[in-house]
Amino acid sequence: MSKAEKQSLRYSDYYWCMSLKDFTEWIEADDDQEPGTSYSDQR
Question: What value does the mean pLDDT take over residues 16-32?
Answer without folding.
Answer: 83
